[in-house]
Specification:
single chain; alpha/beta; Rossmann fold; 5-stranded parallel β-sheet; 46% helix; 16% strand
Length: 147
């Protein structure tokens, strides 16, 4: 059995690689949001060029949302990473999709974001402060063994 994990959120650090490396590889399959910012912004270009940035962004958002929603629907659990440096609107939206679809999710962020993310964390099944905690949770889920 392969436990499907969707990794969403912040794209400026190696948290995804840390989680993937720490998990029992034969027990998991991972998918992710597009982590190349330029590619994500250009996803709508597949539908033709736009003169106005609003319509380019609108088309790209819809193409990306189709991909994201499909991967969230297929996952067993999602990990939503909120970084300290940038506003994470996409991550918050992904957490909302998980909550609306009844998909369990784990938030990953530092203590400085407790207050701004209180509603997001309230719907999460767990809150972790570092990738190692996420690895421990995921490995526990599939093996029922702690540490």
């Amino acid at each position: 059995m392969s436990f499907k994990v969707y990794l969403a959120g912040e794209i400026h650090s190696d948290w995804r690689q840390q989680i993937i490396a720490g998990c029992e590889q034969d027990s998991f399959s991972f998918s992710s949001a597009v982590t190349d910012h330029g590619a994500s912004d250009a996803a709508g270009d597949l539908l033709g060029n736009e003169d106005k940035s609003f319509w380019r962004d609108h088309k790209s958002a819809k193409v990306n949302a189709t991909r994201t929603r499909t991967l969230i629907e297929k996952c067993d659990v999602a990990v939503i990473r909120f970084g300290e440096k940038y506003k994470q609107w996409n991550a918050a939206f992904d957490a909302g999709c998980c909550a609306a679809l009844g998909k369990p999710y784990i938030t990953l962020h530092g203590e400085e974001l407790i207050h701004p993310l209180k509603e997001v964390d309230a719907a999460a099944f767990a809150w972790a402060t570092d990738p190692e905690q996420v690895v421990e949770i995921l490995n526990y889920i599939v093996s029922d063994q702690l540490g």
